[in-house]
């Protein structure tokens, strides 16, 4: 399946991209993160367990056990700092 | 008049005009506003400007959801949230929250609630630009989490 990935703020800078289309078999957010960490470098350090980041599926915050479907928009970003 | 509005914009806003817009309802005896400004210190000193990024689409949805939560807790006739994005110089306004209610306690509480949840849930990120040109992303604050947590 295909996912539309979005990265924001510090993560966008670290990963060197704001968006990508990802072909994956990951069934959950957790599995997706494992796959992204395997890219190494900033991917493994920024998304390491214990690092503070958030995941949104189709613009709603979700937990790591959230499931994924073809065409989902998945955003990964640091804790928010607006206001 | 649309009583509950959210706006994300680059350009500045007129606080007086926004307050006036919510002041015309004869059932509202109380209008409260909060504006947040770019300060000269944050995570670092000598801040010259902020650069605000957001997640278009999710930002608007999350702010309307926060307003909806406020409406379930307090009697609220109208509310406006305006948040700017892009580069904002020292002293410029970043955010405006205006609430209108029959009673001041509801208007005060709702305005504070909206700000507390905006700061912890709405997908905005600040970058500090110092006077010497160095740039870094602002870290999320435990004190903001605590402020939002006390409403539960």
Would you kindly provide a written description of the structure presented here, covering whatever features stand out?
The complex is a heterodimer of chains A (83) and B (152). By secondary structure, chain A is of the alpha+beta class. Chain A has a single domain (2-77), classed as Ubiquitin-like (UB roll), CATH 3.10.20.30. Helix content of chain A is 27%, strand content 28%. Chain A has helices at residues 9-15, 29-37, 41-46, and strands at residues 2-7, 19-23, 54-57, 60-62, 73-77. Chain A has a 5-stranded mixed sheet with strand order 2-1-5-3-4. In chain A, 27% of the residues are buried. With 152 residues, chain B is an alpha+beta fold. Chain B has one domain: Molybdopterin biosynthesis MoaE subunit (Aldehyde Oxidoreductase, domain 3, Alpha-Beta Complex), CATH 3.90.1170. In chain B, 32% of the residues lie in helices and 34% in strands. Chain B has a 4-stranded mixed sheet with strand order 1-4-6-2, with helices on both faces. Chain B has a 4-stranded antiparallel sheet with strand order 5-3-7-8, with no helix packed on it. In chain B, helix 2 runs antiparallel to helix 3 (104-121). Chain B is globular and about 50 Å long. Chain B starts with a strand and ends with a helix. Chain A binds chain B through residues 6, 8-10, 13, 52, 56, 59-61, 75, 77-83, and chain B through 36, 52-55, 57-58, 61, 83, 94-95, 115, 118-127, 137-141, 144.
């Amino acid at each position: 399946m295909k996912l539309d990935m979005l990265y924001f703020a510090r993560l966008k800078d670290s990963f060197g991209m704001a968006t990508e289309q990802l072909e994956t078999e990951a069934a959950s957010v957790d599995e997706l993160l494992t796959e992204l960490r395997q890219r190494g470098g900033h991917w493994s350090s920024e998304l390491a367990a214990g690092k503070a980041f958030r995941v949104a599926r189709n613009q709603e915050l979700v937990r790591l056990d959230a499931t994924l479907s073809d065409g989902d928009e998945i955003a990964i970003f640091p804790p928010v700092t607006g206001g | 008049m649309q009583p509950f509005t959210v706006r994300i914009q680059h350009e500045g806003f007129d606080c007086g005009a926004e307050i006036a817009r919510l002041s015309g309802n004869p059932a509202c005896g109380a209008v409260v506003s909060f504006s947040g400004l770019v300060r000269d210190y944050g995570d670092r000193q000598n801040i010259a400007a902020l650069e605000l990024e957001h997640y278009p689409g999710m930002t608007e949805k999350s702010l309307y959801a926060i307003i909806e939560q406020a409406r379930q807790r307090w009697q609220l006739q109208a509310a406006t949230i305006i948040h700017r994005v892009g580069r904002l110089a020292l002293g410029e306004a970043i955010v405006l929250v205006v609430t209108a209610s029959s009673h001041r306690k509801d208007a005060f509480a709702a305005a504070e609630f909206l700000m507390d949840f905006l700061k912890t849930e709405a997908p905005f990120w600040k970058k500090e630009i110092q006077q010497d040109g160095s740039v870094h992303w602002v870290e999320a604050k435990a004190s903001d989490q605590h402020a939002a947590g006390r409403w539960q």
